[in-house]
Amino acid sequence: MEMKIKKLEDSLISKIAAGEVIERPASIVKELVENSIDSGATQVTVNVVRAGKKLISVADNGCGMTYDDAIISFERHTTSKICDVDDLFSIHTLGFRGEALASIASVSKIEMVTNTGNSSATKIEVFGGVISDVGSAGAPRGTEIKVSDIFFNTPARKKYMKSDAVELEHIVDIVTRYALANPKVHFKLLSDTREIISTPGSDDLLSNIRNIYGRETEKNVVALDSSVKGIVVSGYVSKPALTRGSKDHQSVFVNGRYIKNKIVSDSVYNAYKTLLPKHRHPFFVLFITIDSAAIDVNIHPSKKEIKVRNDIESDLSDAVFSAVDKTLKENVLIPDAVISARDRVRDSGVAPKAKNLYKVSAGTQVTLRPSQSIVSEKASSYVGSEEVHTVDDKEVSVSSSAVSEESPVVSRLPAMKIIGQVNKTYIIAETADGMFIIDQHAAHERVVYEKFMGMYGSSDIKTQNLINVQIIELPAKESLILSSNIFEFKRYGFDIETFGKDTFIVRTVPVILGKVKSKDMIKDIIEDFINLSKSDKISEISERIIITMSCRAAIKGGEELTAHSIKTLIDELAKTENPFTCPHGRPTIINMSVSELEKKFKRVV
After folding, report:
1. Domain at 220-330: CATH architecture
2. pTM
């Protein structure tokens, strides 16, 4: 059959173009809100009926349009924001393609009323991309656009719309992003006359965060403001205590535009590194100011993606990483212990019996019966106000011979007074404002991890000879993996030799592992190595391997510690870069304030 090339009709071209720009009701909200912001509006009201399927109204108090501009605005590729090709590489507005109104109009019914404030308002009605009526109306300065019956003339597209609840979620997300990006603008979102969002328009980003995400989020974010090679990064990032199950609460704005960019995202996660639990994600609102000539926003009709100039990519990554990393290192990240009502004992109203509390004495550990007092007259003085001790108790960490001389380090933990142990797992310490509850395993794991990472980075891992060499046997598959990676294992302090078919001798292990407490411990660590290497080469997963080794080497819950061991552990934790989480992202310390205790005991209301 003979094929003939023909030119498409303008109406069909418009519908095709609309398919790229208008995916769902939220797409229309996005385009209209961007136009409102570009018009200089300080008030933007979005009103939707049936999640925008029936009606979308966006009203602003911006500059408005003249009669002639209003008429031409519905034609494709008409805009006031760029004039020539050079402008594409120096874009300072959210919109610039001149497609939004034409695309929206081609698949819906539109009524627009706009006024510059110098004369009567212009009212235009558009049906399926064709202007059906033009007149005048009384209206204040600004523009209001009502869009109804979207996709009325493309029923196939209508079928792809989701439920009202899902479509409304997308609209809320769009308005939220632009409210965050423009704190000076008073945004209001109404759904079926119900107010969903209302921001103060106060030019206070933290106030906007509280307004949108709540007080709990506001309490658990820290500000950042940094500049690297002319790239300015500011905003807020969450403390490790505040994480989410998805990336939905992450916003990045480049030159005021909401975008998604892998370079920026990866840099943020690299800064958090071992502060995040597995499968959890940080909250952040980041504003990046960069030379507009260094980025290209004209790579997708939605304008959510940007292309960064090749020679700027590493600078952008460094700027974001250093800003987040510096902020996390400069702030105290200890979470508060808040006991909610649902955590209280139900039904019987009787609290379960607590397990024995352990008082730490200056010598050996003493177990107290529940009837005995747990107050120690000779409790240690405040840690942090004294000199820093080197860990030399083998029950807690490595021997002093494994630790090189270090310059004094400023403690990142407040002063505290050690009280004792609970359940041989948690250390209780008094602070000026309440008490800390410290997970001894998580705390020691952080200490071992940072020391091991330092040794590995300087290729200076001290080893210890085993008095009794360990002989391990492995299945054929694991044996092959170990055989091909014996040199890599040596880099971590393991001297391993083959000893017949699928059998190996382990002669040395890292000193940082301390006393090898179990004959299976070495085999367990090696098996951990092998399991990690099944997905990646061992040489490429050094940090994950060291995290695994640190977990194995750290003291465990259920181990009694002497007063000296506890104090030494806290001193060493205070010297780490990130004393607030273990390498897996779990908290090492939580804070119970006096005010929280008084609330629980009903001393205050």
Report:
1. 2-Layer Sandwich (3.30)
2. 0.67
